[in-house]
Amino acid sequence: MKECISKGYSNLIEQRSRFVGCCFTIQTEDDFYHELQVIKANHREARHFTFAWRYQKDQQVFEKLSDDGEPHGVAGLPILTLLQKQDIINTAVIVARYFGGIKLGKKRLLSVYLDSAKQAVEYAVFSQRIQGFCIKLKIPYASFVLMEKWIASAQGKIMDKVFSDQITIQCWMSDDQFEVFKASPLFHSIKIVDIQKMNML
User: Are 45 and 100 in contact (CB under 8 A)?
Assistant: First the structure.
């Protein structure tokens, strides 16, 4: 799973119609509509603003698409399918069209919209999002140093520590490393207080 961290753009001409694409990060639907208004203000002469977006909240993926007046299925769906196939999340792609006076037909329109979206995605910068768990653990003092070393070697992350009769830590580790951890002798010396799915960049 990956998400956009720096915008990508495209600019294609097809039989006098101009297609301008933009790929950018979003965390909410409001983020998307704010950026859409900016793009509309910068391209006042464009006739269509087709788009698709995907973002994740509480482990649920939300998606939306629009052909914005173009024939059904020629823009929004291929853009969304592109995001899905490349496992892209928290990202939107808008392709604006300046109509050049020549009708392109559904097949050609779909091809150009997809090419514009692909190019915008290609020029964007992405960060890989790793699937894993946020885990709260109670650890005996005798096991704490070993646990710290194990998390560091597994490229996990300790986010919080509380010292009392035992040590309580909140840490993150990937899905794969959590499976390794469960099979290790160290696992039997600690207590899992809480565990939640949490992906990390």
Answer: no
The helix (H) or strand (E) run that includes residue 179 is: helix 175-182
Dist. CA 66–CA 48, nearest whole Å:
10
Element (H, E) at 118: helix 106-123
The CATH code that applies to domain 132-197 is 3.30.70.240
As a whole number of angstroms, the distance between CA 71 and CA 179 comes to 48
- The predicted-structure confidence for 153-162, as pLDDT tens digits, reads as follows 888 899 899 9
pLDDT 10s digits, 99-116: 999 999 999 999 999 999
The tokens for 175 are 């899905």
Which fold is adopted by the domain 2-128?
Ribosomal Protein S5; domain 2 (3.30.230)
Write down the domain spans for the chain.
Answer: 2-128, 132-197
